[in-house]
## 1
Amino acid sequence: MLVTNGSPIMSSANSSGNPWLNDQEHRKLHSHILTIEEESGVDGLVNALKELVIHSTQGKSDKDGKKTRSFLKTALDPTYSSQPTGVEWVAQSLVKNLESIFGITPQRTRAIKEALSLPFSQKRVLMRGLVERLLGEHTLVNDRTNTFEAVMLILGNLGPDQQDLADEVTQPLLKLYESDFKKPFINYVGHNFRTADGSFNSINFPDVGKARSNYVRSVVSQAPVNANLPPPHVVFERLLKRPEGQFTPHKSGINMFLFYLAIIITHDIFYTDPKDPKRNLTTSYLDLSSLYGYNRKDQESIRQMKNGLLKNDQWFDKRLVIQPPGVAALLVIFSRNHNYVAEKLLAINENGRFSFGPGKPLATEQDLDEELFQTARLINTGCFSNVVVHDYIRTILGTSQSSDFFLDPFKMPAYPVYGNQVSIEFNIIYRWHAAIGKQDEDWLNTVMNTLGPSLRYQMGHAVPAPAEVVVEQRQQQPGKPGDGDPNGTDQGTFDALLPLFNEHFVHATEEELEKGLPVAGAHRDVKTGVFDNADLAKLLRRGYDQVASDLGNGLATPAALAPIEIAGIMQARNLRCCYFNEFRKFLKLVPMGTFEDFSEKVEVQQALKELYGTPDKVELYAGLMVERTKITGLRLPYTMGRAILSDAVNLLRNDRINTQEMTPQNLTNWGHEFIQGEADQHGRVFPKLIQLHLVQPGNLPAFTQEELNNLFVVPSSQ
Ligand code: HEM
Ligand SMILES: [Ca+2]
């Protein structure tokens, strides 16, 4: 409906984002035109036009710019074009000032002269065309005003001596039409779902971000080699190790629950191949890959292969079994969410799209399973990304989970041409072992002491020097593109550990183990394989109630992690990572000039001096861990805190599936609405997931509403 109250441009749908004005606003703006004319005459209008040009070209929109734009929008309205006010002034001003507005070229000067010699009615139409084009960059064009056609008519009737004017008006149009379609093309029909191994996220560069790819290098080291690097165990002892009996609680009261989520995120994007430290066995996208696995074979091992369902409370990655058990409990929420979503999709069966048989959209029951599985997976990863944006990043920044402000990586339209692949630097930046809370440190000590050498072997696997790395040539059997390694991910070392782990920490029966991976402190129903909800809630509460450690300044990493940290230091050296100051310069941060700049702990400053001699020789790994911390939010060491945000934003925005495929058509209306989160929770979906999937005895919620509002801060600090 384009005509309301005799005003053809207007629409009353302004509140829904339609940039055109409603009738009342329109009248207000018309009087605004008159005011501008009255107050500042032609000069005011010309200035307004100049502003418009500046705003259209620079994309700024301050208050004045908005006023100008609205005012010019009004100028486009033919309702007023019969009046000698407003439009007429604008027309004359625009044409007269083409020169100063658009800059001068000889052709343009001729064009302006030609324009000025046109009859006024034609000048006005041309003006409208120009204004529409300028506005069109930011607002929608109302094609029913027929401006375009009118301009074409005028141009068509111009004589050969007015060719400059015609060119001046039409050439930019060609550019406009051409740029309607962004190149390279990134969205091909039929690539709506994630592949099992993460490939084809970028169709043009299908291997980017695929499981089993090498890490990317962000910074090439150009500095002279430090030929006197200290032995890695000395680096750990002198700079990283938390002294026995010492614990500094996190100054913002951040709890371990936040770090359980961080561990799920790091396992999602980092899985260094124990046989080759250059290689990452997981996908570089935030796609819940520790839940779904890293290739088709992994994925099928945890699927029921019926109705899109996962095996109850199951996930793929066994690395999570030896983490604090709250981590697995958290991942189980997403496992449950997958099945909840798959069941919901089938029950709603929007437009019959999940029906199979003759004449139905799907041919067989297997097709139904696949379609439901992939759609549910898409929705589940959408929920995960909601949690990362609304709960996780907000905590990192220190903005409340219960506020409407959040750094939305999707606010600006993303155009992910290249996909994303994580870097070795990002891997190191994300080793937040210093944050481990007291209770989890105790747990870690017990696990290390009990599992002893076998675990130590697994954790601190010897990292071979680059020359020794044998690049494994797995046989690539023909499979579907995107299915990945046909042999599945080898987690044999964990299989070997599991019996001992179970015996000491879980005490699950054979029947329970047959149903799925063990979680210390939780038991599965032997018939259904479903964990006891109260057990899971208890494990999450252990994270919620447990304050994390301060993470900066060095000397904060639990001693039990020594073999893991030493392996990390060696990995960074062998992969030729840049020096710490080089990394800071890459991020446009001032390099550290003195050792006092690094850490506030005097003994760390002294140790740095003794181990490295000069700040420029400090290696990336050590430098990141010993730095002073930011003063709000997660209080990460400065460089880490800066880098983590670039990495997180890149991770989310360079994911085609996250940015282009999260549509109602792909997810169904219900699924699309689900991942938007709850309006009364400021768009968060996490509280709802906890409420839905962790119902406690007596139908009570696992966390109260108040707790849900601030999940990542220990209650005593709130
Ligand atoms: C009690 C808690 C934790 C335990 C027991 C633990 C254990 C481990 C182990 C065993 C490894 C070495 C894996 C291997 O060599 O294959 C590792 C690596 C790593 N950890 Fe932790 N971790 C804990 C907490 C965290 C936290 C809070 C973070 C950060 C959010 C984190 C980030 C990493 C990263 C990025 C790696 C390197 C992963 C790779 O390259 O494969 N960890 N951790
Ligand atoms: Ca992943």
## 2
Amino acid sequence: MQIYLVGGAVRDTLLGRPVLERDWVVVGATAEQMLSLGYTQVGKDFPVFLHPHSHEEYALARTERKSGRGYTGFVCHASPDVSLEEDLARRDLTINAMAMDDQGHIVDPYGGQSDLQLRQLRHVSPAFSEDPLRILRVARFAARYAELGFQVAPATNELMRSISASGELESLVPERIWKEMSRALMEPKPQCFFQVLATANALSGILPGLCDWPDTGDDLLQHAVTAQLPLACRYALLSLLSEQPERWAEHLKVPNEERQLAQLLRRQGSACLQADNAEDWLTVLEGCDALRRPERFAQFLACLPTLAVFHGQPAPAANAMQNWQMRLAHIKAVDVAPLLALGLKGKDLAQRIRSERLAILQSH
Ligand SMILES: Nc1ccn([C@@H]2O[C@H](COP(=O)(O)OP(=O)(O)OP(=O)(O)O)[C@@H](O)[C@H]2O)c(=O)n1
Ligand SMILES: [Mg+2]
């Protein structure tokens, strides 16, 4: 059997970028051989194994053909007679369809090295269409490598448009879309992900109601990248572009953390930017449930400078975030025990706590 490094690890090695994850392909072996060597099988549909020590993925060379819509109709053929070239042919992009042997020699039957130089994201063959998720992958690679000058090849663009027109994107499950999109949001140029999808007529299938990607979206995400905001903040800011953000959240099954921050930013963002007295401050802190959810509140605060830019408002003062954290600390310091000792309960107690918090905010 021969073992080759494949996919992203070869691509990133040739680009001189750090390799975070390594995938291997095994030619000329059977599943039984792999098991007898101590590998464990992971893929149910595909013969993929984990190395006994490194736990990296080793896949038997295979060919794939799709015979139906969605994820139902995959015919996978793995056997010792499938060649490396055949395995590479089923892959998405030429830059992902290269292999490296243990001597460091590159196997590159589809022009991956040339496309790395030309900075082209180009499909290997019409088999690209067999997995509509690849449209999202191409868009994500664009977001990652735009800084290096990578663009989608015109023919690949055409192909992606025809996939969009076929309605195949509808077969993508929300979890897979979210996985690609959330990764894309953390790339250096997340706006390119959405631009590429828009050009491929695939944007509205991902973010319902959004057909064209607005210029304001570019500025919004660029600002979020510059501020090094975490995923939840980036998603919350992105959702400002939607007239029906809950529709996005449903469509993508957005996890609660991101979804709730998006709701909070909408409900409390402007009020927080405008608040200038103790009553306003307390109302915002309450509205954000800041005492019980301090981490979420910190993320909310981190979004505010970008939100201000988005609304064409002056950026909050440099110490605005600290001031909010101080206000939170002040209301947290209000001691409930003596009020309980007074025998206060229910509504009376709540009112009394609120007025004490208000008083402490006013005194600072
Ligand atoms: N829908 C897909 C998913 C994966 N691949 C192939 O499988 C390899 C490994 O997939 P994955 O690890 O998901 O992507 P990488 O290219 O390694 O990129 P990343 O840096 O994001 O891991 C890819 O390079 C590509 O050759 C593919 O052709 N089509
Ligand atoms: Mg990989």
